[in-house]
Design a protein that fits this description.
The protein has 14 helices and 20 strands. By secondary structure, it is α/β, with parallel strands linked by helices.
């Protein structure tokens, strides 16, 4: 058995800069202690454009982890499918530890699969941002937690344009769920002792998307006190997360090693990913003879995206899922569509219509595919805003990042369009050379309603026996976290976790 327990608290999509500012003001003392006294550093994950794989990559290992995105492309059916689980077959590391006889407690790890626990417990869906499923292992634990702490306050995401009232409701919901998470953590830890305790605080993710700033709502005529609440809402949620983390630290057994971490961060939303369909449509018209739009493409061009989103949100999920499959399968004239755009939330996703992979593929693998990729990359990197500033930072080829024989490769986009520093709200349109592509009202809100979006870099801070106070300048891959857990527990990590332990000075 391990000599000391290991505790991990993840802050989902937490902005380190905000934490440092609040810590300097004395608002987040627990975070401040770990940043000052612990071993700290920066984290990254490759590929940077696949933010949807970051949690599965962490808990499953492998090149990209399982592919997860709610609207996933099915090349066999040539349509998008709404899914609530990852595509992959690797097990999370805690299942391996549980099978070895260690007692583990896993709480709200995003996208975690439901698997039986022999020696430990798991809670999923209490306060995660991507809220699709709620369960516990063992199953009866859910009702016990409800009796002890009340029902979870967090609802599913209300994706789309927001109002002051909806954001104030979100603020209250996230504060309540974070406070409840701290109390629940203390209650769960009393069920121990556990060799490994993992809890992810998800309110920072949801709050970061919608409460980053007030740029996406109209504040004209709003009471000053409500404006003040909105402007300070995200700071309040970070302060609440600090209190919840403090409750975990206070409940930790003596000698525990505690790792505080964020796999990725949060920043202002550039807004390009949600405009990418329109950008792609404009570019398609300048690449050869344009074809008449399909009926659904014509409808999309006249029906505002935000209205379509709201209409679909009112439908039962079973009907909206079928509608997604039906419309996506007919959105393109496939015999004349060499490439198309997939839904995304950070990088832009381009998929090529390749023979042998897509059921109705038209491009020959190899040279033809490579030439089209070269052409698309060349065009995209020339797109500027109306002021002449480039909007694309880098275009990555998935084939350069993921092995062709990786079982998940066939589901992934082929090109990842990583955006530059210019935001969509800072310009009124786009051009290609001397030709105008698109125009919109300056400062137009995003259809998503999100003022914040993911930042690719994360961070960590650890305190415990054998961990010396250091600040590393090295950018470490997130794949080093799980080998560190195994090292601390005195176990050998499975082969799919290829990273090295993050604290090599720790005595084995």
């Amino acid at each position: 058995m391990p000599s000391a327990p290991v505790i991990l608290v993840g802050l989902d999509a937490a902005d380190l800069g905000r934490i440092e500012r609040l810590s300097a003001l004395g608002e987040t003392p627990c975070f401040a202690r770990f940043l000052k006294e612990g071993a700290r550093g920066r984290l990254s994950s490759r590929p940077t454009g696949l933010s949807a794989t970051i949690w599965p990559k962490w808990f499953e290992g492998g090149a990209v982890g399982s592919w997860y995105f709610p609207k996933q492309w099915n090349p066999d059916r040539m349509c998008l499918e709404w899914v609530t689980a990852t595509r992959g077959n690797l097990e999370p590391f805690w299942s391996d530890l549980d099978r070895r006889g260690l007692r583990v407690c896993i709480v709200d790890v995003p996208q975690a699969p439901r698997l039986p626990m022999r020696h430990g417990i798991a809670v999923q869906g209490w306060q995660v941002h991507d809220l699709f499923d709620r369960w516990t292992e063992p199953a009866g634990l859910w009702e016990e937690l409800v009796r002890a702490h009340g029902a979870p306050p967090l609802d599913g995401e209300d994706y789309g344009r927001q109002t002051v009232a909806s954001l104030l409701d979100l603020r209250a919901q996230l504060l309540a769920t974070t406070s409840q998470a701290g109390e629940m953590a203390r209650g769960l830890m009393r069920r121990g002792p556990f060799d490994l305790f993992v809890m992810i605080l998800g309110a920072l993710h949801r709050g970061g998307h919608y409460l980053w700033d007030t740029s996406q709502v109209d504040l004209r005529g709003v009471a000053p006190e409500d404006v003040s609440r909105l402007e300070g809402a995200l700071d309040e949620i970070y302060v609440a997360a600090d209190r919840a983390f403090g409750q975990v630290v206070e409940s930790a057994p003596a000698g525990a090693r505690i790792l505080l971490f964020a796999l990725h961060g949060m920043g202002a939303n550039g807004g390009w990913s949600e405009r990418f369909q329109a950008v792609a449509a404009a570019l398609s018209g300048r690449m050869g003879a344009p074809r008449p739009p399909t009926a659904l493409q014509g409808l999309r061009r006249v029906l505002p995206t935000r209205l379509a989103q709201r209409a679909v949100s009112l439908l039962p999920s079973s009907i909206s899922n079928k509608l997604l499959e039906f419309t996506s399968a007919r959105m393109h004239d496939w015999p004349y569509t060499p490439w198309f755009v997939l839904p995304s939330d950070l990088a832009g996703f381009i998929r090529l219509n390749v023979k042998g992979r897509e059921a109705r593929g038209i491009l020959s693998p190899g040279t033809e595919v490579r030439h089209l990729e070269d052409h698309l990359i060349g065009i995209l990197t020339q797109v500027t805003d109306l002021e002449g500033r480039g909007i694309v930072g880098e275009v990555e080829r998935t084939d350069d990042l993921v092995a062709p024989d990786d079982p998940l490769r066939r589901f992934l986009p082929d090109l990842l369009v990583n955006w530059g520093t210019i935001r969509a709200g800072e310009t009124a349109g786009l051009r290609l050379g001397n030709s105008e592509l698109l125009r919109w009202p300056l400062g137009q809100p995003h259809d998503s309603g999100r003022s914040g979006n993911h930042a690719t870099e994360g961070w960590y801070a650890a305190i415990g026996p054998g961990i010396t106070q250091t600040q590393s300048a090295e950018l470490r891959d997130i794949e080093g976290i799980v080998p560190t857990i195994y090292w601390w527990l005195g176990e050998r990590s499975p082969s799919q976790f290829r990273g090295a332990a993050m604290f090599p000075d720790y005595p084995k």
